[in-house]
């Protein structure tokens, strides 16, 4: 099956265009996404996962420089002007944010915030737009949806606000949903509900989802495939079963071991030694080498390419962990 | 909503009690004998005594204060010595001119500062931003009377584009005649507004809801007008409301420079003439104007911001 | 120290450096006006009255043939100290009152709150003019009037900062250690609370220059024949059609000095603003 979205060798640098010091936030990231598929993008803060996501709809282009391609239905989004991008954004590609309180405009009713997007992308008249707004609020599970169109964001609870944001994103039935840590700001129980909602919507509408998160539990619960990012690059990618079941990159392995699971109480948690490198000051070879127990001279000299270790499982490592089973 | 207005109004009672005390004490401290000022230098002692009696100057301070409060509440602020008419009538006569001038200059300030703040914020750090900020930084360092004189010299006296004084007839006549006095104030206030609005816009542009509006594929017109402007306006409305005192100070100066017969010029005349009752009435009028605007600012803000309506 | 580092950083920004240069140069002119004035500011020359600006008289001459630039330069002696004298007493009184009511709260604070409300209900200039009217026009009375009204703004700001600081642990630690109240207020709280007040003081100095010259212009501040920028401008206001330089040239000095002080204020705000 053809991917609907194909990110090819995307790099994002921040700083003045001809400046001597450019900050390489994302380097050579490639990703494919099929319809109905949920791809998890995992990493620590500063790994470039959010920048990657925000670069797809061009949100970073006004303060950063983008290189590479983001192919959407045969067109390169990176090369398109703001004006030609606009009919695609909000219609085919939608995005939701981490903190609904700051992503929803506090001064506008949720009704206005849903219908304004419909107005921009559909030929529906005002009545039909309102009907559609009630429909999507209902769809995301807002009780008494019709009576809440005139409410303001602050009149909703945290979980409900996140549902409102999803409703706004879904209003014109997009084919791709970009979700930037959509559950980080929520309680654990509500977190699970929202993830279920996203997974169900992806299934029902055959919608592709890229889900950025720092939480491997979220990935395990709701994603089909996962890409792990470290210091601006993808270090491992594959099906959730393959990557989480049998991590081949030492960094992914370290991440897995730092998640408490099936351990007796009061066992000391594993944590990866050292800290991620500063993007200002990247080591010449593998960015993870200084923290890696398996690092060799080769690792510190040359950046390992992302290559297939087996079908549907890629890792960027000179000396990957062995396959188990 | 009605409740918060009521609370606000109730809170104004102690404030105004204090305002009345300040005015009362200030005016009692004024040098010179008001009876003498009223009657003229050649008045006989008997005449002076009658006037003192009439003004209640022989009563104790407390009685005078009670009488002052009573009279003021019933709208009687005494007779102006200078204008030989009731203070309330004199003020009512000149009040519209000053209000017109104040509203006019706020309008001009917003017309100047609004678009320029957008240009500066959208070009943050580039030359249009630097240019606008430098010009207005200089604007902030120019006293209103000096801006007024510069405008007067070049646009009125030299080029004869505008009259050098007066108020004009009819709305357009007034707008034309008072353009320079209003501009003199607007030059300063727009500098303050621009500074605040620019940083408010920058803050809003970086907000998540603007990013959200962008990925919704909304046209820039809708993003700037509906999402950015309204949010940036909230802090600016407060600022404009709180600058009403500055604005009134500005009208006082500009009315003097351009010989506009409003409350500000009247205040200076009253002070030089030691016109007790008129100073008292004018000071009170200014205080009422300012707190009226504070109240309107609050209301306007809660109209703009639904979070403040509860 | 950290502050010197930030100071050096701020100096790299053109605004702050320009502000320091302007104010520094202004102070030197105020100290040694005779070194800069090309003419005796009081020397009348009936052969050269109302001369427009020329190389000999860059700001022209006035109705008595005096050199306007020299008069402006001698006026630095009045206007530069004005920035300091019109604000320093309000600063000191305001900081002390604000710190005390902020620390003790209670009834004094409640009364203070009403006073603030009442004072900000008057336009600043109206109240200052009313006080000047009570005391009589003149430079000293003008300083008194500005102080009588202005301290409230410093006190309000200091009070808010002190209350903010009292939430910190070290404030309660001081109490546990049994320090006296005044020691806690003035040795512990105030040094941490004072930065924004100092920034406000700097911008207030710029405002004082504008306010002082405005009052001079209105006839309520410095009195002629004293050389003060507002007074000089007022003297020329009846000649805007025939001798515009009389009132417009002295204004350049106001704008320049006001700009200098406000640039320093902006720079200080950058230096003293807590980062992170």
Automatic annotation (TrEMBL), chain A:
<dbReference type="Pfam" id="PF00005">
    <property type="entry name" value="ABC_tran"/>
</dbReference>
<dbReference type="Pfam" id="PF08352">
    <property type="entry name" value="oligo_HPY"/>
</dbReference>
<dbReference type="InterPro" id="IPR017871">
    <property type="entry name" value="ABC_transporter-like_CS"/>
</dbReference>
<keyword id="KW-0472">Membrane</keyword>
<dbReference type="InterPro" id="IPR003439">
    <property type="entry name" value="ABC_transporter-like_ATP-bd"/>
</dbReference>
<protein>
    <submittedName>
        <fullName>ABC transporter ATP-binding protein</fullName>
    </submittedName>
</protein>
<dbReference type="InterPro" id="IPR050388">
    <property type="entry name" value="ABC_Ni/Peptide_Import"/>
</dbReference>
<keyword id="KW-0547">Nucleotide-binding</keyword>
<keyword id="KW-1003">Cell membrane</keyword>
<dbReference type="InterPro" id="IPR003593">
    <property type="entry name" value="AAA+_ATPase"/>
</dbReference>
<comment type="similarity">
    <text>Belongs to the ABC transporter superfamily.</text>
</comment>
<dbReference type="InterPro" id="IPR027417">
    <property type="entry name" value="P-loop_NTPase"/>
</dbReference>
<keyword id="KW-0813">Transport</keyword>
<feature type="domain" description="ABC transporter">
    <location>
        <begin position="5"/>
        <end position="256"/>
    </location>
</feature>
<keyword id="KW-0067">ATP-binding</keyword>
<dbReference type="InterPro" id="IPR013563">
    <property type="entry name" value="Oligopep_ABC_C"/>
</dbReference>
<dbReference type="GO" id="GO:0005524">
    <property type="term" value="F:ATP binding"/>
</dbReference>
UniProtKB/TrEMBL annotation, chain B:
<dbReference type="InterPro" id="IPR000515">
    <property type="entry name" value="MetI-like"/>
</dbReference>
<feature type="transmembrane region" description="Helical">
    <location>
        <begin position="9"/>
        <end position="30"/>
    </location>
</feature>
<keyword id="KW-1133">Transmembrane helix</keyword>
<protein>
    <submittedName>
        <fullName>ABC transporter permease</fullName>
    </submittedName>
</protein>
<keyword id="KW-0472">Membrane</keyword>
<feature type="transmembrane region" description="Helical">
    <location>
        <begin position="232"/>
        <end position="258"/>
    </location>
</feature>
<dbReference type="Pfam" id="PF19300">
    <property type="entry name" value="BPD_transp_1_N"/>
</dbReference>
<dbReference type="InterPro" id="IPR045621">
    <property type="entry name" value="BPD_transp_1_N"/>
</dbReference>
<feature type="transmembrane region" description="Helical">
    <location>
        <begin position="278"/>
        <end position="300"/>
    </location>
</feature>
<feature type="domain" description="ABC transmembrane type-1">
    <location>
        <begin position="95"/>
        <end position="297"/>
    </location>
</feature>
<dbReference type="InterPro" id="IPR035906">
    <property type="entry name" value="MetI-like_sf"/>
</dbReference>
<feature type="transmembrane region" description="Helical">
    <location>
        <begin position="97"/>
        <end position="122"/>
    </location>
</feature>
<feature type="transmembrane region" description="Helical">
    <location>
        <begin position="175"/>
        <end position="194"/>
    </location>
</feature>
<keyword id="KW-0812">Transmembrane</keyword>
<keyword id="KW-0813">Transport</keyword>
<comment type="similarity">
    <text>Belongs to the binding-protein-dependent transport system permease family.</text>
</comment>
<feature type="transmembrane region" description="Helical">
    <location>
        <begin position="134"/>
        <end position="155"/>
    </location>
</feature>
<dbReference type="Pfam" id="PF00528">
    <property type="entry name" value="BPD_transp_1"/>
</dbReference>
<keyword id="KW-1003">Cell membrane</keyword>
């Amino acid at each position: 099956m053809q991917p609907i979205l194909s990110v090819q060798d995307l790099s994002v640098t921040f700083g003045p265009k001809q400046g001597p010091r450019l900050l390489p936030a994302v380097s050579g990231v490639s990703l494919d996404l099929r319809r109905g598929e949920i791809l998890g993008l995992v990493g620590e803060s500063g790994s470039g996962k959010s920048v990657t996501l925000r670069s797809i709809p061009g949100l970073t282009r006004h303060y950063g420089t983008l290189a590479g391609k983001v192919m959407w239905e045969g067109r390169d989004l990176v090369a398109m002007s703001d004006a030609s991008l606009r009919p695609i954004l909000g219609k085919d590609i939608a995005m939701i944010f981490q903190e609904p309180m700051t992503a929803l405009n506090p001064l506008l009713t949720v009704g206005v915030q849903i219908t304004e997007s419909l107005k921009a992308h559909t030929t529906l008249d005002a009545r039909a737009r309102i009907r559609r707004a009630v429909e999507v609020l209902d769809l995301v599970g807002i009780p008494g949806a019709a009576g809440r169109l005139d409410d303001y964001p602050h009149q909703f609870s945290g979980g409900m606000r996140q549902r409102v944001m999803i409703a706004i994103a879904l209003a014109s039935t997009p084919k791709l949903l970009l979700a930037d840590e959509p559950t980080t700001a929520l309680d654990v129980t509500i977190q699970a509900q929202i993830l279920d909602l996203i997974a169900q919507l992806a299934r029902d509408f055959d919608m592709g989802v890229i889900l950025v998160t720092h939480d491997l539990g979220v990935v395990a619960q709701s994603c089909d495939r996962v890409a792990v990012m470290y210091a601006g690059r993808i270090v491992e990618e594959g099906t959730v079963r393959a990557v989480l079941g049998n991590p081949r990159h030492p960094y992914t392995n370290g991440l897995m071991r730092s998640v408490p699971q099936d351990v007796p109480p009061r066992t000391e948690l594993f944590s990866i030694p050292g800290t991620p490198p500063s993007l200002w000051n990247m080591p010449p070879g593998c960015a993870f080498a200084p923290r890696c127990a398996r690092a060799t001279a080769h690792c510190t000299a040359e950046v390992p390419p992302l290559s297939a270790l087996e079908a549907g499982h890629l890792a960027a490592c000179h000396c990957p962990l062995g396959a188990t089973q | 909503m009605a409740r918060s207005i009521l609370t606000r109004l109730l809170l104004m009672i102690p404030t105004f009690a204090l305002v009345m005390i300040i005015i009362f004490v200030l005016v009692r401290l004024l040098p010179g004998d008001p009876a003498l000022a009223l009657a003229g230098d050649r008045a006989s002692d008997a005449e002076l005594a009658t006037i003192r009696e009439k003004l209640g100057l022989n009563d104790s301070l407390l009685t005078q204060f009670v009488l002052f409060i009573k009279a003021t509440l019933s709208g009687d602020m005494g007779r102006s010595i200078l204008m030989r008419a009731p203070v309330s009538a004199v003020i009512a006569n000149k009040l519209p001119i000053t209000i017109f001038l104040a509203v006019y200059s706020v309008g001009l300030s917003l017309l100047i500062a609004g678009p320029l703040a957008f240009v500066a914020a959208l070009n943050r750090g580039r030359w249009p931003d630097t240019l606008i900020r430098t010009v207005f930084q200089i604007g902030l360092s120019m006293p209103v009377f000096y801006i007024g004189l510069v405008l007067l010299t070049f646009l009125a006296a030299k080029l004869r584009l505008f009259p050098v004084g007066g108020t004009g007839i009819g709305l357009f006549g007034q707008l034309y005649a008072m353009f320079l006095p209003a501009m003199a104030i607007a030059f300063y206030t727009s500098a303050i507004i621009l500074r605040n609005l620019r940083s408010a816009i920058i803050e809003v542009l970086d907000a998540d809801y603007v990013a959200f509006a962008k990925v919704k594929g909304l046209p820039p017109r809708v993003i700037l007008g509906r999402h950015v402007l309204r949010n940036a306006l909230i802090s600016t409305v407060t600022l404009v409301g709180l600058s009403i005192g500055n604005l009134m100070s500005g009208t006082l100066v500009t009315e003097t420079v351009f010989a506009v017969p409003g409350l500000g010029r009247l205040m200076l005349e009253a002070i030089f003439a030691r016109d007790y009752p008129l100073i008292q009435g004018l000071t009170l009028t200014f205080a009422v104007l300012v707190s009226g605007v504070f109240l309107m600012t609050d209301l306007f803000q809660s109209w703009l911001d639904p979070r403040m309506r509860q | 120290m950290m502050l010197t580092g930030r100071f050096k950083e701020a100096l790299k920004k053109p605004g702050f450096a320009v502000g320091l240069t302007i104010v520094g140069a202004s102070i030197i002119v105020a100290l040694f006006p005779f070194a800069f004035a090309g003419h005796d500011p009081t020397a009348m020359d009936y052969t050269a009255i109302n001369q427009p600006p020329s190389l000999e008289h860059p700001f022209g001459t006035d109705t008595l043939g005096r050199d306007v630039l020299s008069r402006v330069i001698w006026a630095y002696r009045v206007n530069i100290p004005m920035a300091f004298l019109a604000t320093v007493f309000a600063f000191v009184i305001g900081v002390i009152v604000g710190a005390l009511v902020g620390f003790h709260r209670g009834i004094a604070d409640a009364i203070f709150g009403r006073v603030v409300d009442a004072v900000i209900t008057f336009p600043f200039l109206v109240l200052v003019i009313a006080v000047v009217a009570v005391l009589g026009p003149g430079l000293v009375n003008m300083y008194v009037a500005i102080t009588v009204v202005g301290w409230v703004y410093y006190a309000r700001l200091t009070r808010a900062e002190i209350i903010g600081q009292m939430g910190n642990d070290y404030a309660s630690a001081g109490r546990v250690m049994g320090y006296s109240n005044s020691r806690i207020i003035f040795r512990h709280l105030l040094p941490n609370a004072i930065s924004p007040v100092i920034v406000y003081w700097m911008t207030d100095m710029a405002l004082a220059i504008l306010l002082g010259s405005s009052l001079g212009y209105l006839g309520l501040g410095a009195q002629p024949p004293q050389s003060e920028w507002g007074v000089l401008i007022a003297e020329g206001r009846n000649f805007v059609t025939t001798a515009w330089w009389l009132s417009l040239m002295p204004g350049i000095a106001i704008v320049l000095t006001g700009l200098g002080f406000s640039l320093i204020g902006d720079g200080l705000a950058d230096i003293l603003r807590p980062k992170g």
